Amino acid sequence: MSKNWAIAIGINRYDYLQPLNYAKRDAQLIQQFLRSEAGFEKIFFFTDDSPEIGGKSTRPTRANLRRVFLELFNQPFMGAGDNFWFFFSGHGMRHAERDYLMPSDGHPGDIAETAIPINFVTERLRRCGADNVVLILDACRSLGTRAGEGIGRQTAEEASQQGVISIFSCSPQEYSYEIEAFQQGAFTTALLEGLGVRGQCATVERLNQYLNFRVPEIVRQHNNGRQTPYIIAEPVNKSHLILVPRYATLADIATLKNDAYRAKDEGNLDLSEQLWIRVLAAASGTDIEAVRALQRIERLRWEGQVISPPPSRNTPDNSTKGTSTVEKNPLKTFQFETVTVDAQGNITNRRNCEAKYWVEDLGNGVTLEMVQIPGGTFMMGLPEGEAYLSEKPQHQVTVPEFFMGKYQVTQAQYQAVMGGNIFQKIIGNNNNNPANFKGEKRPVETVSWNDAVEFCQKLSQKTGKTYRLPSEAEWEYACRAGTTTPFYFGETITTDLANYRGTDWNYEGTLYPGNYDKGPKGQYREQTTDVGKFPPNSFGLYDMHGNVWEWCQDHWHDNYNGAPTNGSAWLNDNDNQSRRLLRGGSWGYLPVNCRIAYRLRYAADFRNYDVGFRVVLAFA
């Protein structure tokens, strides 16, 4: 799930400059569009009377805006497939061959000391880590003079070199017009039309075409003037990026795919990965071609290929700058003991096993161990007569090889990856360990599906690998580890082997047993335990039964009719709010709920102190 954040600034009242009429309203309308129609989660709004954030003023003075740029963009907090938009409506000026945005206290007689250079803005925006940064400037409003060149030329040159998509309201020697009949600027009127249902301009290219037609038309009709917007999007594939996925056509997606294949053929795996992630976002996560392409890219990286991107415009052809070598992670082997129990819970067999794994260094002594899960075919679900309706029909699934977390994600790992979100710091809330039962080696819990996905995105950004949640099929295949019994231990389970509720539960007059079938009752610990405390399955995975529920990628379906048979996640089209899958049971649930085949569902924003997750890394 991509992350979409923005800053919107609109200034009507200036201390030393001619006031504007509709700049604030333009920013408000952009904010509303991004939130309601484009699905942006965080929009930071700065205008003459915008509310405080964490007790700090959002009036767009030079000091306030510089503080945001310096604090907010101090370190990357986004990654591939993410979007950050910056919208500014107000005065802009050119001074000493540099382009400036004028804050509310900017002084035309001392521009260098009171205004904000636009190249400073673009440089800070690039630090966010998103591969798609959009700069929208309606900053050429008339100052009562037509002398000299307006802003745009320097900004366009530098933004294109940094890969920032730059959208200008007018050409450098023109001015933006405010349209009284619309109570808006001509540019913002056309921009919102083009991005919205009227224009349905999903891509940068189509939006550019719409603005070039519509803005001059509006200005001719209402002001008899001239205003020519333009967009700078380099390299050329930036023009094909999808700005509004809801309006993307099959042709738009096909063009992105061609760009992604071309980038891979040219050896630029990073760009290819970014483009495939955008294909996946435009297709609501259901494009199998994109999934397989991302898996192939991961395989290429894993095998240690030398990746040589095309030389940048500033790098001589014979330079080695920009060439990176991806080293193959050496696999290690670990030994462990598995146990098998009979129907009464007695251990009948102990077996020494081994598995391969590799270690991801998360920093500060925290590591993540990923176990190699061999590909194979298995029967998913249970046959008629043995299962709940949601666990039927039983069907054959073939799962490609992948890697899975040896343990559920721990609190130490969660904190190492999530870090201190800079937005949380600004509002005075920097608690990045949501767990109720504290302990570095305990699984993180009280995390939603959305939280788990964000963790995977940040982990991918941190490591350069593509981590994600397991598909439901991958999870069940990994848990079974070749078994066909209700538990990977055998016919039953005991609280010596897993952390679950081993005592009876009386709910509204109905007694639910704390044992499974003929197995014994046991403890009810009423909290999580350190990961790895109980015996693993024969793949070398710990705590696949109990401790905390584990989120999967999939949307909930009432049964397996129509389920994929290739191990991929089963997703609905355009349904980001639907319920998501959890597997494995938890410390607070009965043994029947900890069976391999048992399925649970909750909304993507649901949090509880028995819900966690583990991660996978997959490739074809």
UniProtKB/TrEMBL annotation:
Polar residues composition-biased segments: 314-327
Record-level Gene Ontology MF annotations: cysteine-type endopeptidase activity; formylglycine-generating oxidase activity
Region span, Disordered: 305-327
Protein known as: SUMF1/EgtB/PvdO family nonheme iron enzyme
Stretches assigned to the Sulfatase-modifying factor enzyme-like domain: 369-616
Residues of the Peptidase C14 caspase domain: 4-233
Species name: Halotia branconii CENA392
GO BP, one annotated term: proteolysis
